[in-house]
Amino acid sequence: xxDFRLDGRTALVTGASQGIGEAIAxxxxxxxxxLVLVARSEDKLEALAEELRSTNGEAVAxxxxxxxxxxxxxxxxxxxxxxxEIDILVNNAGITADSLFVRMNLEQWERVLEINxxxxxxxxxxxxxxxxxxxxxxxxxxxSVVGLMGNAGQANYSAxxxxxxxxxxxxxxxxxxxxxxxNVVAPGYIRTAMTEDLPEAARKELEKSIPxxxxxxVEDVAAGAVFLASEEASYVTGHVLxxxxxxxx
Length: 249
Ligand SMILES: NC(=O)c1ccc[n+]([C@@H]2O[C@H](COP(=O)([O-])OP(=O)(O)OC[C@H]3O[C@@H](n4cnc5c(N)ncnc54)[C@H](OP(=O)(O)O)[C@@H]3O)[C@@H](O)[C@H]2O)c1
Description:
Elements (H helix, E strand, L loop, with lengths): L9 E5 L4 H12 L3 E5 L3 H13 L4 E3 L7 H8 L11 E4 L14 H29 L2 E6 L3 H4 L5 H21 L4 E8 L12 H10 L8 H12 L10 E4 L6
Parallel strand pairs: 1-2, 1-4, 2-3, 4-5, 5-6, 6-7
Helix pairs in contact: 1-8, 3-4, 4-6
The structure holds NADP nicotinamide-adenine-dinucleotide phosphate.
The site of NADP nicotinamide-adenine-dinucleotide phosphate has 27 residues, from α1.
């Protein structure tokens, strides 16, 4: 047993500048992985990379905008020396643009599909070939329980997150023969910038509706991601790991 150690592996995490992605990057680094940190905010990525290096980790910032999926392949062909062979990919970057469906315009629909779903497609396409050649890989897509259960006001986001699950299951079948697993983590309500606008009363109501009676922490999601990245999870593929305190059962 390796106790979920990831020494010698290189991981790329999108949306690593804050929130869940930052927590996943920290946890992967703590387990021994080399880290490529991706998002738009260069300063935040550099600060995290610096911090991980100062605690004996190896990490680089690699800023990239997923709103331009056609440029993603070129940008990922420029990974710095020592970080070019990605073993573990975490497609975590995501946005919301909520609106009741009848008021949702095409721009809101396309923007959310583009970052959450097409972004993951573009990054995965750029990196899967290397994993196939090396016959080892872990792809972890961060979806959401709303991709499983739907959510009023989030038709675009629910569609994108459900799309990620379909993409993951298809890829799990396609890449299994190359020893690459593809899995999903589906968080419920996690305390991050994405949920901080929730009014106090709404948060209390929400907590009541969650069987474990609390919002999740970013570490709850990071723990699931580390398991799926590990050697111990080598017989798990095409799985959706719901981390929602029982909100979705
Ligand atoms: N928080 C929750 O309750 C919750 C629940 C279920 C699922 N999720 C999912 O978990 C993931 C992380 O959520 P979070 O709560 O940590 O959100 P967050 O704090 O808003 O972080 C989102 C991340 O995505 C990056 N990002 C956004 N647009 C980007 C773009 N165009 N190009 C590259 N990176 C981009 C952001 O970095 P930059 O701004 O620096 O680009 C940031 O690092 C998302 O996929 C979200 O849908 C969250």
